[in-house]
Each structure stands twice: as structure tokens, then as C-alpha cells.
């Protein structure tokens, strides 16, 4: 082993049957991981940047929605302030149901990463439909907005849960709560950076056109989903392996 490798020895040396979704990794000492050492742990960088793009998309759409609706001609006219507030509140209410739906699907399938990435991919056409057809009528504006809220807002919290759970079961971190806390903090705060640059990035793009803002949102959602690909593949392999074992047992019976 190279002397520069990060080494962690878990307190619990019991075997871990969970799939290595983080790309394999070195064992590390049971101590507080330094900032650069934590970045060197396999899986931290892609997970952190996934949260970066997820929060960038969610926060941009959430905070820019009232301004966008109030300056958009919908059904041939500008909406009143009351209607704008009602539509914006509808987006927030739909977010609650999106969280329940994402959690239910995740628990039912026992596949957090697959659920989260699927939601991010589904948010892309929802964003496109909202921007392209949201001006036709009030219904055409509300329907894709609700779909966008369902798919967009809660999955980034689900992604954070999936990441923490898989890092917690990874052999290199098991039993080392201090190292896990450092890694979790890095991932969460990287997402906060994505939310923080939102006003500057959105301001620069909106000065050109709103089309640029929506293109940015769709590209960021796509990148967030793609960054979960490795974890998704690992979950699919586990599902196939489990199904294969079940089929073999049934055939023996």
C-alpha cells in the first residue's frame, strides 16, 4: 500500500456483506479524517457533486418561481398577485407529496439510488414541459409545475440519505463515526455551495434569456442523475443476484 493512501481500521471487524458501491477502498484508521483525506475516500467526490447539482436545480426553481410566474403571460394575460401566490404555494404543497412518494417507492423497492436518480431524470421533461407549454393556460402551467415539484424537490434529500447509508455500511468506515461525520459534512456542505451560487448563476443567465436558465436546470438535473450511475449499477447487481439466488432455491425445492 502506498504511504499516501488514507487508512481507516474500523472498530467492528465483522464481515460486511453489503455491495461495495463506492468503488472499493482502503481501510482507514479510527480517527478524525482530515479534510483532504476525507476527499480521498472513494465515492465522496462524485456523491458531493451530485448533491451540488441537485440543490442547485431545486433551489433555483423554488426561489425563482414567483418571479417567473408574475412576469409570464399565461392564458393571454398576466396573473394577479393572489393567483401567483396560490400557484407558488401549490408548488410547496406538492413538494410534501413528492417526499412521501419518493420515500414509499424507495422503501418498497429497497433501492434508494435508483429511486433518486429516476426522479432526477423525470424532472428533466417536467421542466421542459413547464417552460414550453406553461403559458397556454392556467392548467397547463399548474400541471407540469406540480410534476416538477414531485420529481425535483425531495429526491435530493433522498440522495443524501442513500449516500449516508451506503458510506455507513462501507467496510472502510464501519465503526468510525468521526470519519463518517467528516464525510457527511463535506457532502452536505458541497450541496450548500450549489445553492449559494444559484443567485449569481441565475442572474447571469436570465440577463440573456429565461431559456438559458431552464437549459441550465435540465443539464444540472441530468448531471445529478448521472453521478449516481455507479450506485445504481451496484443496486441493480444486488437485485439480480438476489433474484438469481431465489430462483435457484425454488428450483431445488
Automatic annotation (TrEMBL):
The keyword Lyase does not apply. Coiled coil: none annotated. It is found in: Membrane. GO terms for biological process: phosphate ion homeostasis. One of its GO terms (cellular component) is membrane. Its main location: membrane. Keywords: Membrane, Transmembrane, Transmembrane helix. It is a multi-pass membrane protein. Residues 1-25 are annotated as: Disordered. PANTHER family: MAJOR FACILITATOR SUPERFAMILY TRANSPORTER 16, ISOFORM B, SUGAR PHOSPHATE EXCHANGER 3. This is Glycerol-3-phosphate transporter 1. It comes from Platanthera zijinensis. The lineage of its organism: Eukaryota, Viridiplantae, Streptophyta, Embryophyta, Tracheophyta.
